[in-house]
Amino acid sequence: MNPDANNNSDRRYYLRTRREAAVAGLIWLVFLVWTVGVSYWLGYVHNDFSTVMGLPTWIFWGVLVPFGAATLANSLYAFFYLEDDPQQ
User: Fold this and answer.
1) Burial class (CB in 10 A: 0-12, 13-18, 19+), 26
2) What domain count does the chain have?
3) Residue 36 structural domain
4) What does each of the 88 residues of the chain score in pLDDT, given as a tens digit?
């Protein structure tokens, strides 16, 4: 067994998992900023007591919508971006 080939394979797996972790972290960061920013703006700055489907506006747009969007984004990420390791 060639030790350089094994090292190259390990490096390839490391770089792929690092890239996948960076994408997952970016998705998390986007939805964190969305949730905190929209909830703050609608709850404190805008200070409107309107409702959407019976929920306060800041909960609908700051919690419910990003939850659904994050679920969709993570599902697409898992089904189309992540790769399986080859069987050895």
Assistant:
1) exposed
2) 1
3) 24-80
4) 444 556 777 888 889 889 999 999 999 999 999 999 999 999 899 887 899 999 999 999 999 999 999 999 999 999 998 877 776 6
